[in-house]
C-alpha cells in the first residue's frame, strides 16, 4: 500500500527519495510522485508525478537537486490511478503526501469549497493540504497548522508535509505506519525502515497522534496530547537489523522465488528458541503467558489473506492437540458483526506486516468486548498489532518483499504449531513423550522443506501446461483443505488465473459442474487417514475427463496415468505436512506466473501491507 519517504539533509536528497521509493515498491502502488524544496531559488517547491513505475519518476527527476523533500507511492483508494490523483497534492506553496483514508473528507471538502479552495484531484488526501493552508493563515507556524489539521481528520493517516517557506518536513501518523530515521547528515521519515537503509539504521517508531518536525539539526516531537517528547526517552531509538541482502534479489529472478527458497533458513530462525529442548515454556509467548493461558477455554483467530489460511490450519492443530474450540474469522468480517464475546477466549491476531488495518481493528474490537487475552503472531516487531496485544510471538521470516506471501506463511505455521503444543500441554492433553516428539519434528522441518524445494525442476515442467488455462481447482482434505485455499490464492494473486480451493469432499456439491478437459485440478494427497476418501474424490474428477495434478507423499498409493500426473513429496510429515505441501504449491504458482509473464513480485491491484479498510 502507499509508501512515504521524506528527508532533510545537508546534500542532495533526490537519489535517496528515489531509492527509498524503490525499496517501498513491494508494498504495492499504481503511481508515484515527489515534491522537492529548492534552496537555491529561496524555497520554491517543484513537483514530479508519474503513473508508471518509480523508474519513470526517477527519469523525470534525474537532474534535480534539493536538500529537503517528500516522496510517495500511491495505491488508489479514492480516484483512479492518474497523474492528477498522484501525490503530492499541493496548495499555496504547501505539499502533502498521505497514506490511509480520510473518512470525513466529504464534509471537509464542502467546508473548504465554501471557503474558496479549488480542488484539482478526486482524492480524499487533497482536503488535508487545503486544510493545512487554511489553518496556517492563523497558526503561529506550519507545525501548529499540521497538528490542528490532524485533530480534524477522521480515519487513517500517515502524512508528510513540506512548505516552500520552511526548510523542514512535518510528519504525523494515526493508524498507518510511519517512522523517523536519525542520520549523521540529515533526518528522515519513511513508511518502513527498508527505505532508509542507505542513510541510517537509527529508527524511532511514531505512536498514534505524534507530530514531528524534521529538520537538518534535529527533530521536534510532540505527542497526541500536545506534550513535547524526548527522542530516546519517550520514544526509544531502535537500531534496525534489516540487512541490505534482505531487500535485494541476489541471484534469484524474483523476490518471491528468493523467499520460497529462504524457507528452510527462516523456519530454523523462527524455531531457534526451542534449541534442543524436549519441553516448551509458555513464556515464549510473553512473560504473562503462563497466567493468561492457564485460564483460556477457547481460541479465536483473526487475520486476513494468507495469514487467515495459517489460522485455518491452526484450528485443526489446536482442536486436536489442545482439545479446546478454535474459531478462525476474517478480520474484516469479525469487526463488524454481532458476536458472542467470551472473556476467557484467547484472541490471536496473525499478521505478517503487523499493520493490516482490518486485523488491527478486529483486535481492538475484541478488546472493546472485554476480551483482553490477546496474542499477536507477527513478523514485524514494533508494529501496531504487536503493540496492541498482551502477548506476542515474533516470527523470524525477515523482510518479505514479494506481495504474495510465502515464507511469512510457513513461519506463521511453525509458530502456530508451537502454540497448539503449548495449549495442549497446559490442558494436560499432551504427554511429555509426545511433546518431545513434536519438538523433534519441528527441528527437522527446515530440512524437510529443503527436500521439497528439490522438486522445482519437475514442478517447472508441470507449470508449462497451465499457460493457456483460465481456471484451476485446488482440492485438499482436513489439514490440507486450508492449503488448497492457499494454493488457489497464490495462483490467482500472481498468475491471474481464476482458482478456487475446495475441501475435496465438497466437490460433488457444486464445483464438479466446472470440471472438464480444460480445468486442471490440483490435489493435495498426503498419506493420511483421509487418503482413501480423497482418492474417491479424484475418481470423480477423472471420470469427467478432468486432468489431475496430484501432490502425493512417497507412500501415497496413487497411480499415474495419461490424465493423472503425480509428484511425490520426499517425506510424509504427519501433522506438519501442510508446511511441506504449501511449499510445492508456492513453486507451482511461481512457475506458472513465470510462464505467463506476469509481474510476479508486484501483481496488479494488490498491496503488500494493507493499511486501509
Ligand atoms: C495483503 C497481502 C497478503 C497478506 C494480507 C494480510 O493482502 O497482499 O499477502 O496475506 O494482506 O496481511 P498481513 O500482513 O496481515 O499478514
Instruction: Please name the fourth-level CATH homologous superfamily of the largest domain.
Output: Aminohydrolase, N-terminal nucleophile (Ntn) domain
- Oligomeric state: single chain
Q: How far do the termini sit from each other?
A: 11 Å
User: Count of helical segments?
Assistant: 18
In CATH, the topology of the largest domain is named Glutamine Phosphoribosylpyrophosphate, subunit 1, domain 1
Number of domains: 3
Biggest sheet strand order reads: 3-2-4-1-10-9-11-15
* Secondary-structure-derived class: alpha/beta
| Principal-axis shape | globular
Unreliable stretches covering 5 or more consecutive residues: none
CATH architecture designation of the largest domain: 4-Layer Sandwich
How confident is the prediction overall: mean pLDDT?
93
Beta-strand share of residues: 15-25%
- What radius of gyration results from the CA coordinates? 25 Å
Under the CATH scheme, which class of the largest domain?
Alpha Beta
Structure description:
This protein has 613 residues and is an alpha/beta fold. It has 3 domains: 3-247, Aminohydrolase, N-terminal nucleophile (Ntn) domain (Glutamine Phosphoribosylpyrophosphate, subunit 1, domain 1, 4-Layer Sandwich); 262-446, Glucose-6-phosphate isomerase like protein, domain 1 (Rossmann fold, 3-Layer(aba) Sandwich), CATH 3.40.50.10490; 456-596, Glucose-6-phosphate isomerase like protein, domain 1 (Rossmann fold, 3-Layer(aba) Sandwich). The protein is 34% helix and 23% strand. The strands form 4 sheets. The protein has an 8-stranded antiparallel sheet with strand order 3-2-4-1-10-9-11-15, with helices on one face. The chain is globular and about 75 Å long. The N and C termini lie close together (11 Å). The model has no long low-confidence stretch (mean pLDDT 93). 6-O-phosphono-alpha-D-glucopyranose is lined by residues 304-307, 351-353, 356, 359, 403-405, 606, 608, 610.
Amino acid at each position: 500500500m502507499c509508501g512515504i519517504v521524506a528527508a532533510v539533509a545537508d546534500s542532495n536528497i533526490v537519489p535517496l527519495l528515489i531509492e527509498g521509493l524503490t525499496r517501498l515498491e513491494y508494498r504495492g502502488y499504481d503511481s508515484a510522485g515527489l515534491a522537492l524544496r529548492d534552496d537555491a531559488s529561496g524555497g520554491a517547491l517543484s513537483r514530479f508525478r508519474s503513473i508508471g513505475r518509480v523508474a519513470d519518476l526517477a527519469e523525470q527527476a534525474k537532474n534535480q537537486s534539493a536538500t529537503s523533500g517528500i516522496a510517495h507511492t500511491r495505491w488508489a483508494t479514492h480516484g483512479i490511478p492518474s497523474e492528477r490523483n498522484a501525490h503530492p497534492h499541493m496548495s499555496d506553496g504547501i505539499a502533502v503526501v498521505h497514506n490511509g483514508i480520510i473518512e470525513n473528507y466529504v464534509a471537509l471538502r464542502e467546508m473548504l469549497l465554501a471557503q474558496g479552495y479549488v480542488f484539482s484531484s478526486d482524492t480524499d488526501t487533497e482536503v488535508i493540504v487545503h486544510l493545512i493552508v487554511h489553518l496556517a493563515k492563523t497558526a503561529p507556524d506550519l507545525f501548529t497548522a499540521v497538528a490542528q489539521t490532524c485533530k480534524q481528520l477522521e480515519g487513517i493517516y500517515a502524512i508528510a508535509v513540506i512548505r516552500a517557506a520552511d526548510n523542514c518536513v512535518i510528519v504525523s501518523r494515526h493508524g498507518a505506519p510511519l517512522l523517523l530515521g536519525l542520520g549523521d547528515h540529515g533526518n528522515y521519515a519513511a513508511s518502513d525502515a527498508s527505505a532508509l537503509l542507505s542513510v541510517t539504521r537509527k529508527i524511532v517508531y511514531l505512536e498514534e497522534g505524534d507530530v514531528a518536525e524534521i529538520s537538518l539539526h534535529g527533530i521536534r516531537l510532540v505527542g497526541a496530547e500536545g506534550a513535547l517528547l524526548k527522542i530516546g526517552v519517550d520514544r526509544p531509538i531502535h537500531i534496525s537489523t534489516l540487512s541490505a541482502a534482505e531487500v535485494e534479489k541476489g541471484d534469484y529472478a524474483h523476490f518471491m522465488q528468493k523467499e520460497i527458497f529462504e524457507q528452510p533458513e527462516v523456519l530454523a530462525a523462527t524455531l531457534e528458541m526451542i534449541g534442543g529442548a524436549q519441553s516448551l515454556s509458555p513464556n515464549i509467548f510473553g512473560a504473562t503467558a503462563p497466567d493468561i493461558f492457564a485460564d483460556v477455554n477457547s481460541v479465536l483467530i483473526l487475520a486476513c489473506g494468507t495469514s487467515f489460511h495459517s489460522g485455518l490450519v491452526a484450528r485443526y492443530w489446536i482442536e486436536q492437540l489442545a482439545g479446546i474450540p478454535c474459531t478462525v474469522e476474517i478480520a474484516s468480517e469479525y469487526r463488524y458483526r454481532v458476536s458472542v464475546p467470551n472473556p476467557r477466549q484467547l484472541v490471536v491476531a496473525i499478521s505478517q506486516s503487523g499493520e493490516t488495518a482490518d486485523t488491527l481493528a478486529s483486535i481492538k474490537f475484541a478488546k472493546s468486548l472485554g476480551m483482553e487475552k490477546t496474542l499477536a503472531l507477527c513478523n514485524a516487531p514494533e508494529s501496531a498489532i504487536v503493540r496492541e496485544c498482551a502477548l506476542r510471538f515474533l516470527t523470524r521470516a525477515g523482510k518479505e518483499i514479494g506481495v504474495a506471501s510465502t515464507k511469512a506463511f510457513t513461519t506463521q505455521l511453525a509458530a502456530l504449531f508451537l502454540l497448539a503444543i503449548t495449549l495442549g500441554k497446559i490442558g494436560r492433553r499432551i504427554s511429555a513423550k509426545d511433546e518431545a516428539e513434536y519438538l523433534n519434528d519441528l527441528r527437522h522441518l527446515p530440512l524437510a522443506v529443503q527436500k521439497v524445494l528439490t522438486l522445482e525442476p519437475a514442478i517447472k515442467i508441470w507449470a508449462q501446461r497451465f499457460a493457456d488455462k483460465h481456471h484451476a481447482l485446488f482440492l485438499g482434505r482436513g489439514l490440507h483443505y486450508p492449503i488448497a485455499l492457499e494454493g488457489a490464492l497464490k495462483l490467482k494473486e500472481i498468475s491471474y488465473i481464476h482458482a478456487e480451493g475446495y475441501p475435496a469432499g465438497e466437490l460433488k456439491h457444486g464445483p464438479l459442474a466446472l470440471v472438464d478437459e480444460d480445468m486442471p485440478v490440483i490435489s493435495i494427497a498426503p498419506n493420511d487417514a483421509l487418503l482413501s476418501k480423497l482418492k474417491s474424490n479424484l475418481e470423480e474428477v477423472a471420470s469427467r475427463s478432468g486432468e489431475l495434478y496430484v501432490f502425493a507423499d512417497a507412500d501415497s498409493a496413487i497411480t499415474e496415468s495419461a490424465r493423472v500426473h503425480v509428484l511425490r513429496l520426499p517425506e510424509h510429515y504427519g501433522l506438519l505436512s501442510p508446511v511441506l505441501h504449501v511449499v510445492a504449491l508456492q513453486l507451482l504458482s511461481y512457475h506458472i506466473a513465470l510462464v505467463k509473464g506476469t509481474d510476479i513480485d508486484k501483481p496488479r491491484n494488490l498491496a503488500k501491507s494493507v493499511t486501509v479498510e
